[in-house]
Amino acid sequence: KPTGPLKWASLHLDIETAMSHPITSPKQLGEALRGYRKKQQLTQQQVGSKVGLLQKTVSTVENETERTSVAQLFKLLSALGLELVVKEKPASQTKISEW
Fold first, then answer.
1. For residue 39, which phi and psi values (nearest 5 degrees)?
2. Residue 13: what pLDDT?
């Protein structure tokens, strides 16, 4: 059973172009979100204002993801037009502890 914020077996951020990137750590999640924001040519201020997040909150989500609340994560996903998909990892890729 997952424990702590953002500790999922595996998650994928899917964009309309059907691109997906497996995410297995908070750092990877922050990097992926930053990448999607930059791909859309949005500043942290612009993306945050879409969903009522301050620029510093968007920065925290991107750079200190482990300190992010689930609510903030979903707001940012919404602002970027992304969705969260949780799925099991293949047994061959499962580690006892990833962090």
1. -60, -35
2. 46
